[in-house]
Design a protein that fits this description.
Distance between the termini: 14 Å
CATH topology: FAD/NAD(P)-binding domain
Bound molecules: flavin-adenine dinucleotide
Strand order of the largest sheet: 5-6-4-14-15-16-13-19
Length: about 475
């Protein structure tokens, strides 16, 4: 029984590896990187590089912005360096489901903490993050109901875990107007919806108003060390002295860490989505077998299908021995893709070159894979006929980064005092607030809200058995 979720890093990974064995190397739509353009609301940052600070955060996505906000609230001086613009990469491209559907129970404490933080986010910011507590439903096929119940039972001991299976008239009341109502669905009233083009900019803006120095178009080239202790960062605009660095670099984290001789494997999948104009559609986020749809704060809809492309990057080849468990957990929702140009670029990237790879690509953006979305919209209109009149008002694609065991990194680096990493988030819109808070706790030497043992950096290199979570 495979996990079915809209965040498909896992299944994609395994399927892709299997397909690599079959030698499928042809170029496919949606496999190439194209010149990057942010879709996030642009915000004003700072221009003057401070000479020193307490904490430098690398990366202005969900992980970095939430860590910055938490540290600022605790009175810690922070500089956030973003090589492009805030939420220019994955965090501005997310579908916007805030949920924990079918996540491994190992992640449940993190997910429940994140739900709590999202629920209080608008009040905490004193501004609209775009979070809406809408609940969510995930259609269950006949064969999936027992699996879903077993998953619920495994999580039942967690306080505030509120997923349950809904059927009949209750399901009808959650999804009014659906012409092909599933027999059963997984439902949580505490799931929610977040508009990715708005949320991180709102968080970063408030963090800045609380004292964070926000430097956009400011790539960090490397971390400086003195006797094993972090002493600063070298950016393209100069050096900042600091004793603590948090790397929240999304896709770029493995490359950045490799510059310090630290191996932290991640693998990407590319996913395309679109926005549909406002019609009389479902107000609760919904994932069917064939698509996902979510109303946005302005009444339009985010839409996507359960099809991803896994780009064959050098990192896939390098980490092949780690990917066995992922292959077993694989679904058939991913196709392999290969761009020779991107592969060659990645292979020859030198983290110590100037300009650095982070300056050479300010915004990572895959091309849009249109065909599966067209089919998906037709399926949506079968369920909700009002969508026959909906217009596609935007299309975009993004890269989701995960790890070989599908657990993020939320970790210190034992060999480098003062260096912390939050990356490989997979469902980082959902988990970002808890990850950011945990990174802030680590940076301050506090005990995090949940156990981080399974999120440590060296689990792929210390001989631990690798399972898929
Ligand atoms: C199409 C799509 C749909 C998704 N749907 C969902 C969903 O519905 N629900 C959900 O929970 N998640 C979803 N996700 C996943 C989620 O968006 C990501 O997990 C999350 O955004 C990752 O956040 P991050 O902060 O780790 O990384 P990012 O958002 O990638 O941020 C990292 C930042 O670091 C910067 N950076 C990197 N290196 C440097 C450097 N050296 N110097 C300075 N800056 C640097 C980058 O420019 C980047 O902006 C989706 C993702 C995509 C692409």
């Amino acid at each position: 029984m495979k996990r079915r979720t809209f965040i498909l890093g896992a299944g994609a990974l395994g399927t892709a590896v299997a397909a690599t064995g079959a030698g499928v190397l042809a170029s496919r739509p949606g496999s190439r990187l194209v010149p990057g353009k942010s879709r996030a609301r642009s915000i004003v940052g700072d221009e003057v590089l401070p000479q020193s600070t307490e904490v430098v955060i690398i990366g202005g996505g969900f992980a970095g912005a939430n860590a910055a906000l938490t540290l600022a609230e605790r009175g810690i001086p922070v500089v956030l360096c973003e090589k492009g613009v805030v939420a220019g990469e994955a965090s501005g491209r997310s579908m916007g489901f805030m949920n924990g559907q079918f996540a491994d129970p190992l992640k449940t404490p993190m997910i429940l903490r994140s739900k709590e933080l999202w629920a209080g986010m608008n009040a905490r910011l004193g501004a609209d993050s775009s979070f809406r507590p809408r609940g969510a439903t995930l259609a269950l096929a006949d064969g999936q109901v027992d699996f879903a119940q077993a998953w619920i039972d495994r999580n039942a001991a967690f306080d505030k875990f509120d997923y349950r299976i809904v059927t009949g008239s209750e399901l009808e009341s959650l999804l009014p107007g659906n012409r092909n109502l599933p027999k059963a669905a997984l439902f949580s009233p505490s799931d929610g919806a977040v508009d990715s083009s708005l949320a991180v900019p709102a968080i970063a803006e408030v963090a800045r108003s609380r004292g964070v120095t926000l430097l956009q178009n400011c790539a960090v080239r490397e971390v400086e060390l003195s006797g094993g202790q972090v002493s600063g960062v070298v950016t393209e605009k100069g050096t900042i002295a600091c004793k603590t660095v948090i790397v929240a670099g999304g896709h770029w984290t493995p490359l950045f860490m490799s510059g310090m001789g630290i191996r932290m494997p991640q693998v990407d999948v590319y996913l395309s989505q679109c926005a549909l104009s406002a019609v009389d559609g479902p107000t609760m986020p919904y994932q069917s077998e064939r698509y996902g749809v979510r109303i946005r704060a302005d009444g339009t809809f985010a839409f996507g299908v359960v099809t991803v492309v896994m780009p064959i990057e050098p990192t896939v080849i390098r980490n092949l021995p780690l990917l066995g468990p992922a292959r077993e957990a694989a679904g058939a929702m991913a196709t392999l893709g290969l761009s020779f140009k991107d592969f060659w670029n990645d292979l020859t990237e030198d983290t110590h070159s100037i300009p650095s790879p982070y300056e050479n690509r300010r915004i990572l953006m895959p091309e849009v894979n249109v065909a599966p979305m067209t089919e998906g919209i037709a399926a949506l209109a079968e369920d909700y006929p009002a969508f026959k009149d909906a217009k596609v008002i935007e299309e975009w694609a993004g890269a989701i980064s995960s790890t070989p065991d599908n657990m993020p990194y939320i970790t210190g680096i034992p060999s480098h005092q003062g260096l912390f990493v939050g990356s490989g988030l997979e469902a980082g819109l959902s988990w970002g607030p808890a990850v950011g808070e945990a990174l802030a706790d680590l940076a301050m030497g506090n005990t995090p809200q949940f156990d981080l043992a399974n999120y440590r950096s060296d689990r792929f290199t210390d001989g631990s058995p690798i399972a898929f979570h």
